[in-house]
Design goal:
Helix content: 10-25%
Radius of gyration: 22 Å
Number of helices: 6
Bound molecules: benzoic acid, fe (iii) ion
CATH class of the largest domain: Mainly Beta
Shape: globular
Number of strands: 12
Largest sheet: 5 strands, mixed
Low-confidence stretches: none
Order of helices and strands: HHHHHEEEEEHEEEEEEE
Number of domains: 2
Strand content: 15-25%
Structural class: alpha/beta
Distance between the termini: 44 Å
Length: 284
């Protein structure tokens, strides 16, 4: 009889899945069950710890709403979002790398004229962002859509402060012309804590970790025939670069922020986006 026993627990549970007609369900669930059982055995999980975990997951679900996704935040701080991205979006040498999407993108931002200002309040140090969207050979890409969003000078996105910030503050969409170039004026962003007033924040505290992300500006760059690029550029020199709460930093995404002589744009951050064609074969 295949009754439950500790020494063969995963094998016994997995033997019941053999009737599924979906081989991927079989593969994923049997691996998950094997790792989960081995985890509990390795740490000798106590009954209290199991109850704590159930309560934690329950509260994580209860914290979720239309505006808050605590489960994705959990995945982010465990480095799991970055791992899934790395598995699914390997990029060839020379292409701009992906990083975590985050919860603060809002679809339908205003389309703005090239060079326009995205900061709609009088806060922060202004920064000229400019560069080119190219293919892997350096040819400019016409018609690339650059969707940009960042926090304000106090570390909040507009959607976190709907009564204090103008709608679409520090957001905009720009479309490149035949030279592939883009430019706009935003602010030099600041580091900020991820939402840490829920179970994920408690978990970070218990693990002795801070909730901060190094200052960054988000970009979603798309162009027909090219893989979607979800990325940030990070402010060089930020003290949180090596301890980003969600592990989003990559060397290639740290951009220069150069001081200018110009009163209108105190900083300048040059950065080129290199897109990968759909046809490119992964080398991994
Ligand atoms: C963000 O950069 O907006 C972000 C990413 C992951 C979790 C929380 C915030
Ligand atoms: Fe962010």
């Amino acid at each position: 009889m295949n009754y439950f026993r500790k020494d063969r627990s995963d094998e016994i549970v997995n033997s019941r899945t053999s009737n599924t007609s979906n081989p991927r369900v079989q593969e994923v669930m049997s691996s998950l069950i094997r790792h989960l059982h081995n985890f509990a055995k390795e740490v000798e999980l106590t009954q209290e710890e199991w109850e704590h975990a159930v309560d934690f997951l329950t509260r994580t679900g209860q914290k979720c709403s239309g505006e808050r996704q605590e489960f994705i935040l959990l995945s982010d701080v465990l480095g799991f979002s970055m791992l899934v991205d790395a598995i699914n979006n390997p990029r060839p040498e020379g292409a701009t790398e992906n990083t975590v999407f985050g919860p603060f993108h809002v679809a339908g931002a205003p389309e703005r004229e090239m060079g326009a200002r995205i900061t709609l309040e009088d806060k922060g140090e202004s920064c000229l962002y400019e560069g080119c969207v190219t293919d892997l050979d350096g040819n400019p890409i016409k018609g690339a859509r650059i969707d940009v969003w960042s926090d304000n000078a106090e570390g909040f996105y507009d959607v976190q402060q709907p009564d204090e910030q103008p709608k679409w503050n520090n957001r905009g969409i720009f479309t490149t012309g035949s030279d592939g170039r883009y430019s706009f004026i935003g602010i030099r962003p600041v580091s900020y804590p991820i939402p840490d007033d829920g179970p994920v924040g408690e978990m970070l505290k218990a693990m002795g970790r801070h909730p901060y992300r190094p200052a960054h500006t988000h970009f979603l760059v798309t162009a027909p025939g090219y893989q979607k690029l979800v990325t940030h550029i990070f402010v060089s020199g930020d003290p949180y670069l090596s301890t980003d709460a969600v592990f989003g930093v990559k060397d290639s995404l740290i951009a220069p922020y150069e001081r200018t002589e110009n009163a209108e744009t105190v900083w300048r951050s040059p950065f080129n986006f290199v897109l990968t064609p759909f046809s490119h074969k992964s080398t991994q």
